[in-house]
Amino acid sequence: MSYPKADFVSSAWKDDLFRKKVVFCTGGNGTICSAQVRALVYLGADACIVGRNEQKTKNIAKELSEVRTNARVLGIGGVDVRQPRLLQTAIDRCVEELGGIDLLIVGAAGNFLASIEDLSPNAFKTVIDIDTLGSYNTVKLTLPHLVKSVQMQEAGNRGVGPSGRVIFVSATMHYTGYPLQAHVSAAKAAVDAIAVNFALEYGPFGVTSNIISPGPIGGTEGMRKLSMIEKIKEKEGRRVPLQRYGSVKDIADATVYLFSDAANYVNGEVLVVDGGAWRVLATGPDSGIQYPENVLTRNTSKI
Ligand code: HXC
Question: What is the main EC category here (predicted)?
Answer without folding.
Answer: oxidoreductase
